[in-house]
Amino acid sequence: MTESLKQILLHTQxxxxxxxxxxxxxxxxxxxxxxxxxxxxxxxxxxxxxxEEITSHADALALxxxxxxxxxxxxxxxxxxxxxxxxxxxxxxxAGASRLRSEMCGRLLxxxxxxxxxxxxxxxRALAAGQENAAGVEVDALDRVTEQxxxxxxxxxxxxxxxxxxxxxxxxxxxxxTDGQRTAVLRGGSELMGRxxxxxxxxxSLTALYCGANPNKLFEAAVAAAEVMNRCGEQxxxxxRKEMEGTASFRTRLIxxxxxxxxxxxxxxxxIQLI
Length: 275
Known about the structure:
The chain is α/β, with parallel strands linked by helices. The chain has one domain: 3-Layer(aba) Sandwich (UDP-N-acetylmuramoyl-L-alanine:D-glutamate ligase). The chain is 52% helix and 14% strand. It is built from 11 helices and 9 strands. It has a 9-stranded mixed β-sheet with strand order 2-1-3-4-5-6-7-8-9, with helices on both faces. Helix 4 links the parallel strand 3 (60-64) and strand 4. The chain is globular, with a radius of gyration of 17 Å.
């Protein structure tokens, strides 16, 4: 898969796609910056009076359930993106923690508006099972993907992908990405990602960027995004440890690493297993 990932990055950097993100206020700046760092352009419109027009100009749409007040805007934007055959990436933040979030995710999936779903294990399980989960944005210990339950996790994730017609990215200590036929297992990354806000949101934005540039290769684009985040997280951690810095510096170093990463760097460092 090495050559495929390399081509995803090269094409993204060549075409400089625009990503329209409807995301939460906590991480909106980080999401915009990581899109720019990876070679794209970002716009973060949320007013329902303009989102259809804005979405029509963009190459991809990222929807983050942290932006609960923008639900009508999300639906309008997603319908526009689907009509134009532009990828829509859904981040079901805290899906299952409230009925409002669950119902909104359900509407998007029921209308088949979503191209890629990116969430942690608890969020993806909540969507797949339709069950409430009081754990919120954190991963419940019972939902974690481990080496011991890897095959079982890949099986139900593949089934969920086939049901929704979307590529599904379950990210954590072990990442699983599937289009219902192929499943990639990614290992690595940095434990410091769990100690800053927005690591998942940034990954969702990165996924939308690569999907926008490569709309006919959504599975490969999703794998590339997760691998970029893992490798850049590792590089950022090495840097902050060396400089005796903390988590605030880690966020900056992470975005720095994304901005400096080349396609050859990724091809030489990948740790991907296809099952």
